[in-house]
TrEMBL record:
Compartments reported by the entry: Secreted, Extracellular space, Apoplast
InterPro entries, per database record: Cupin_1, Germin, RmlC-like_jellyroll, RmlC_Cupin_sf
A cellular component annotation (GO) from this entry: apoplast
Stored SUPFAM superfamilies: RmlC-like cupins (SSF51182)
Entry similarity comment: Belongs to the germin family.
Protein name: Germin-like protein
Residues the entry annotates as binding oxalate: H102, E107
PANTHER family: GERMIN-LIKE PROTEIN SUBFAMILY 3 MEMBER 3
Keyword NADP found: no
Length: 208
């Protein structure tokens, strides 16, 4: 009696889970984002193309002299609900990814050929820094300030996986010198001198 009951219960669960299973929730971007993400596109309207991102190509260099490609839920709806996104950067010789933090995402760095120096600063101000090369993977814990730069000859390419489908990114230089924060307040709060602040505001297009 008992084994038959369990078998029956098992079958019921299996059938039931088959009925309620949802394998994916491709974002319906037209549905509008809410605090829990995008609504799911109707499965009957999902096609193979929803799972392929075709624009993972870097554009022209930005003001930091690196170029990036970003696959996040807003441009790759298949990532909806999966909790990760992917980025790629190409750094010319000498180029830098400036000090920044993702408060909502841990980061995995996958190094390519060449020498990529990267590091983070823990909340107790210990510096963890390493020059990576092909075959190296590095982890940057959520929320910590970090950076990277091309430490070798020629152009390099790096890959990143972040544990959020739409990670936030706060870049220190832009927060300070690309914003409207008044120069006198920047001076007061960072102890930098006015000439340096004005120079960086001109570079990063800040006002105030
Ligand atoms: C599927 O897509 C078509 C065309 O965009 C749309 O008219 C239709 O409402 C969609 N079906 C569902 C079930 O969302
Ligand atoms: C980017 O490169 C240009 C030309 O080499 C240089 O003038 C500029 O200062 C660089 N920007 C940064 C943020 O290093
Ligand atoms: C990377 O660093 C190693 C060790 O210093 C050096 O031998 C190599 O030439 C460097 N590679 C590039 C592309 O700069």
């Amino acid at each position: 009696m008992t084994p038959i009951f369990f078998l029956f219960a098992f079958l019921l669960c299996t059938i039931n889970s088959h009925v309620v299973a949802r394998d994916f929730c491709v974002a319906d971007l037209k549905g509008g984002v809410t605090s829990v993400g995008y609504p799911c596109k109707s499965p009957t309207n999902v096609t193979i193309d929803d799972f392929v991102f075709s624009n993972f190509k870097v554009g022209t260099s930005n003001q930091f002299n690196f170029s990036g490609a970003y696959a996040i839920v807003d441009n790759f709806p298949a990532l909806n609900g999966l909790g990760f996104s992917i980025a790629r950067a190409e750094l010319e010789e000498g180029a830098t990814i400036p000090l920044h933090a993702h408060v909502d995402a841990d980061e995995v760095v996958i190094a390519g050929p060449g020498n990529y120096t990267t590091g983070f600063i823990s909340s107790d101000n210990v510096v963890y820094i390493k020059t990576l090369t092909e075959g190296n993977i590095f982890v940057i814990p959520k929320g910590l300030l970090h950076f990277g730069f091309n430490a070798g000859k020629g152009k390099i390419s790096t890959l990143y996986v972040l544990s959020s489908e739409k990670p936030s990114t706060q870049i220190v230089d832009l927060a300070l010198f690309g914003s409207k924060l008044d120069s006198s307040i920047i001076q007061k709060t960072t102890f930098l001198d006015d000439a340096q602040i004005k120079k960086l505001k001109a570079l990063f297009k800040g006002s105030g």
